[in-house]
Specification:
- Keywords: ATP-binding, Kinase, Nucleotide-binding, Serine/threonine-protein kinase, Transferase.
- This is CDK15 kinase.
- It comes from Balaeniceps rex.
- Pfam families: Pkinase (PF00069).
- With 189 residues, the protein is α+β, with helices and mostly antiparallel strands.
- Helix content is 27%, strand content 24%.
- The protein has helices at residues 2-6, 60-71, 101-106, 114-133, 173-176, 185-188, and strands at 19-27, 31-38, 44-51, 80-85, 89-95, 99-100, 146-148, 154-156.
- Strands 1-2-3-5-4 form a five-stranded antiparallel beta sheet, covered by helices on one side.
């Protein structure tokens, strides 16, 4: 970290050179997540790199997610630090969360302690109550989108599809039956 801090003079905020990619965390069809570090602050960050198609420009879902995350400020919502656009990519810079709930459960094959379950559930419900008060539905709640810090803080992440139901495995029955009149019940299912 000292190496990066010594080189921070003259590095502008909001520039691709402000962050160093340390390791690839996961990859999707047009998005890659990296663990990174800020050359400005020395903080670990998560870098969500979205590949841009020349003809299509910035995807609507990326614009939607960025606008929501700029609006949503809560202890149980992942924090968006920065947005960087180049000709080829759009990068969202998030606070770094150490694992998602699916990984956390995998690290505890003997099961989670009831105190942890209650703490995670409380934090999840606090985050949901906040976004529902803002008239926003997450629509893609699943263990992979519930992020956990090294301090045990649970935060909602991945608001890319917060306007449509996406992961069928976690869909409530009424969505399968064709309803389009969604309410906050959708996120509770």
């Amino acid at each position: 970290i000292d190496f990066f801090m010594k080189q921070r003079q003259g590095i502008p905020f909001g520039a691709a050179t402000s962050y160093v990619h340390l390791e690839k965390l996961c990859e999707g069809s047009c998005t890659t997540m990296y663990k990174g570090i800020s050359r400005i602050s020395g903080q670990l960050v998560a870098l969500k790199v979205i590949r841009l198609e020349a003809e299509e420009g910035v995807p609507f879902t990326a614009i939607w997610e960025a606008s929501l995350l700029k609006l949503l400020k809560h202890a149980n919502i992942v924090l968006l630090h920065d947005i960087i656009q180049t000709k080829e990519t759009l990068t969202f810079v998030f606070e770094y969360m150490h694992v998602d709930l699916a990984q956390y459960i995998g690290q505890h094959p003997e099961g989670l302690h009831s105190c942890n379950v209650m703490l995670f559930m409380f934090q999840l419900l606090c985050g949901l109550a906040y976004i529902h008060q803002q008239h926003i539905l997450h629509c893609d709640l699943k263990p992979q989108n519930l992020l956990i810090s090294c301090l045990g803080e649970l935060k909602l992440g991945d608001f890319e599809y917060s306007s449509e139901v996406v992961t069928l495995w976690y869909c409530p029955p009424d969505v399968f039956l064709g309803t389009t009149d969604y309410s906050s019940d959708l996120d509770i299912w």
